[in-house]
Design a protein that fits this description.
Length: 280
């Protein structure tokens, strides 16, 4: 397949949307391989149409630049630093950012840069796991700690968590500091109701861990968690977010090493298309 996302039809100077791959997976706790996620998502994009039936829009009308990947690091702080620097450089002129992971730690690098640019932001998280540990395996810069890191930067009151169905007792109690909508209390229909009533008067970044989906729809992820939402519901939820002032989003935790028939990468690629059409 090509080196770029299918829909990347523009040069950097003219683009409205920037895509950045982040091939990092050094803190994974179960099945490694998300470092290959950006490539798998790009490859899967070549199976997609430019036109979205649901949104009645053609992505070929949006100017998109694929900025390639950050370097591969084994040290999470180095990875976060480069992701943040690359994001800052890409977004100097107020463009829209789409991140391709990589493990979930990479989202912190983008949010750090967005916080510098926009000062006051909120983050909406879709995830199976609460990711609020203060450290994991003696490492605080970990995929299991990413929302704790983000919350410390932007304020936990500006973190909105949906789809959660896994976490240890301590971090789940800590989640009450956020706007916490766990899946056993808020199913897909109720998530749509919450989002419809929710008012966020800030710039919003959306982070989508592919494991928010049930493993039946997205088996190719490092820490699958049964009992998730369906792919059809995910697209309804995604479309409902367009009411917010969204400045970017990412799709993380796609692991092609365990992805049966590439269906998880395919799902991620379609999320990217629908997200760009809904938000950009």
């Amino acid at each position: 397949m090509g080196d770029k996302f299918l829909f990347a039809n523009s040069e950097k100077e003219d683009a409205d949307v920037y895509i950045l791959g982040m091939p990092f997976d050094s803190t994974v706790s179960f099945k490694p391989g998300t470092r290959f996620g950006p490539r798998a998502i790009r490859d899967a994009s070549y199976n997609l149409e430019f036109y979205s039936m649901a949104l009645e829009r053609n992505i070929n009308n949006i100017k998109i630049f694929d900025a390639g990947d950050t370097d591969f690091y084994t040290n999470p702080q180095n990875a976060i630093s480069e992701i943040s620097e690359r994001t800052m450089e890409l977004l100097k002129s107020g463009k829209f950012i789409v991140g391709l992971g990589g493990e979930h730690t990479v989202s912190y690098g983008i949010v750090k840069a967005l916080k510098e640019i926009y000062k006051d932001i909120a983050v909406i998280q879709f995830d199976a796991h609460v990711d609020l540990r203060t450290e994991f395996d003696f490492e605080k810069f970990s995929h299991a700690c990413v929302m704790n890191l983000i919350g410390q930067d932007i304020g936990f009151e500006n973190v909105y968590q949906f789809g959660i169905r896994s976490g240890d007792e301590e971090e789940l109690k800590f989640a009450e500091k956020t706007n916490f909508f766990p899946l056993h209390k808020y199913d897909a229909a109720q998530i749509l109701e919450v989002l419809d009533e929710l008012n966020i008067d800030k710039k919003v970044y959306v982070t989508i861990d592919i494991d928010v989906l049930d493993p039946a729809y997205a088996p190719g992820t490092g820490t699958p968690e049964p009992g998730g939402i369906s792919s059809a519901d995910m697209f309804k939820i995604l479309n409902s977010l367009k009411k917010f002032d969204i400045i970017g989003f990412d799709v993380v935790e796609v692991n092609p090493m365990v992805d049966a028939s590439g269906i998880t990468a395919m799902m991620a690629a379609k999320i990217v298309r629908e997200g760009i059409l809904s938000f950009a």
